[in-house]
Design goal:
Distance between the termini: 12 Å
Number of strands: 7
Largest sheet: 5 strands, parallel
Oligomer: single chain
Order of helices and strands: EHEHHEEHEHEHHEH
Shape: globular
Number of domains: 2
CATH topology of the largest domain: Rossmann fold
CATH class of the largest domain: Alpha Beta
Low-confidence stretches: none
Helix content: 40-55%
Structural class: alpha/beta
Length: about 190
């Protein structure tokens, strides 16, 4: 089973995905840039993903670096998406990221779109980074605008995804809702 969690920055994807995976006993797959780097390394090194992950050094960004080099758009190729799909093809996964419901796992048994008020999203990110909320909000708006340029909206839920507005909810509340969706899908 795959539980796909999508949504804009600061909506709670990473926090919730980790907790949902733990609650369900599933693997957790962060399909953001890091996951795409592992998929790219797997393709370029001709290694299984687990071995490629051990062979590549990923440095946090922005930008994310692969062995000290910005991989740029190479992490967004159809081949990298296909590798992500292959990884999700076996086992139970909670996969999160901005492309997960629309591109990587459009047929996931559970597809969730997390969202929150933009000020709440900025407040959460500011709490993580120590930056001023206004600074985070401006950067978030820039990122949201840039994410619209892939021929699709990454700020709108994909068709068929269950929308969960996390504004005012605790991570435990959101995990409970998603776990209920997964339990229903298994039934």
């Amino acid at each position: 089973m795959v539980v796909a969690i999508d949504g804009p920055a600061g909506s709670g994807k990473s926090t919730v995905a980790k907790q949902v995976a733990a609650a369900l006993g599933f693997g957790h797959l962060d399909t953001g840039g890091m996951y795409r780097i592992v998929a790219l390394a797997s393709l370029e090194l001709d290694l299984p993903p687990a071995e490629a992950a051990m062979a590549v050094t990923i440095e946090g960004g922005p930008p994310l670096l692969m062995n000290g080099v910005d991989p740029g758009d190479r992490i967004r190729t159809p081949e990298v998406t296909a590798m992500q799909q292959a990884i999700l093809g076996s086992g139970d996964w909670v996969a999160e990221g901005r492309d997960i419901c629309q591109v990587v796992a459009p047929d996931a048994e559970v597809r969730v779109w997390l969202t929150a008020d933009e000020t709440e999203r900025a407040r959460r990110r500011a709490a993580q980074t120590g930056q001023a909320i206004a600074e985070v909000l401006a950067a978030q708006r820039d990122r949201d605008e840039a994410d619209q340029g892939h021929g699709r909206s990454t700020l709108e839920p994909s068709e068929g995804a269950t929308v969960v507005d996390t504004t005012g909810l605790t991570p435990a509340d959101v995990v409970s809702r998603i776990r209920s969706l997964a339990d229903a899908a298994r039934a």
